[in-house]
Amino acid sequence: MLTASFPKTARLRSPAEFAPALKGRRLAKGALFVLSASSLHAPVATAAVTSDAGDNAVNMPADATPAAPIPTGARLGLVIGKRNAPLSVSRNTLRRVLREAFRHVRLQLPPRDYVVRLHSRIAQGSLTSLKQLARAEADAHFARAIRQRDDSARPARPRT
């Protein structure tokens, strides 16, 4: 049975990992957040050491090791700045809620890098109302990303 988890391999960490997703396609925009995604991950390539097996072998130096495989699942990056959420309690609450929403749908999302960016200033209010608003918007954004995957899996209509 698969469990909904959020391992370290499902997180974007360095600016180099964030850049393709931020430059990629914007999937959804709401009152608080913008969801962007990179293009699909490239398939994992495996290389074989040269042998007498035939034409399918790849020449590699004897001391070389194959590169680490490219992650195949959905990964999440969060951009929650002080400009739009001045209190650290609010920023941490938003991060926690977004990670939890992503954790529940991670296995249903296409294998891409996703970045959720806070694009507008949050209103002063209770943390409970902020959590409810953020969770509702995050669920809607991720549901839209899942629907877009399902739409792209359908065969295209022939053009007339």
TrEMBL record:
Pfam families: Ribonuclease_P (PF00825). Keywords: Endonuclease, Hydrolase, Nuclease, RNA-binding, Signal, tRNA processing. GO terms for molecular function: 3'-tRNA processing endoribonuclease activity; ribonuclease P activity; tRNA binding. It catalyses: Endonucleolytic cleavage of RNA, removing 5'-extranucleotides from tRNA precursor. Residues 1-47 form the signal peptide. Its EC number is 3.1.26.5. GO terms for biological process: tRNA 5'-leader removal. One of its GO terms (cellular component) is ribonuclease P complex. The keyword rRNA processing does not apply. InterPro entries: Ribosomal_Su5_D2-typ_SF, Ribsml_uS5_D2-typ_fold_subgr, RNase_P. It comes from the Bacteria. RNaseP catalyzes the removal of the 5'-leader sequence from pre-tRNA to produce the mature 5'-terminus. It can also cleave other RNA substrates such as 4.5S RNA. The protein component plays an auxiliary but essential role in vivo by binding to the 5'-leader sequence and broadening the substrate specificity of the ribozyme. PANTHER family: RIBONUCLEASE P PROTEIN COMPONENT. Belongs to the RnpA family. Consists of a catalytic RNA component (M1 or rnpB) and a protein subunit. HAMAP family: RNase_P. This is Ribonuclease P protein component. It comes from Pigmentiphaga aceris.
